[in-house]
Amino acid sequence: xxxxxxYNQLGEVVDKVSVSPERLGADESGxxxxxxxxxAIVYYNSNKxxxxxxxxxxxxxxxxx
Length: 65
What we know:
Blueprint: E1 2-7, E2 13-19, H1 34-48
Antiparallel strand pairs: 1-2
């Protein structure tokens, strides 16, 4: 089992969670695949974003023809 530390917003450790290596896509040696773990972190962080950005459309830009 892998021990994963859980932090609060102030950066303090508040808990430990045990995670089996198989749940992280471990290979035969029991080592988790780093690429898969990175994709999971990027996916998690992208879902935390608000998503209210947008760009101007053609009719909203001034001075263009």
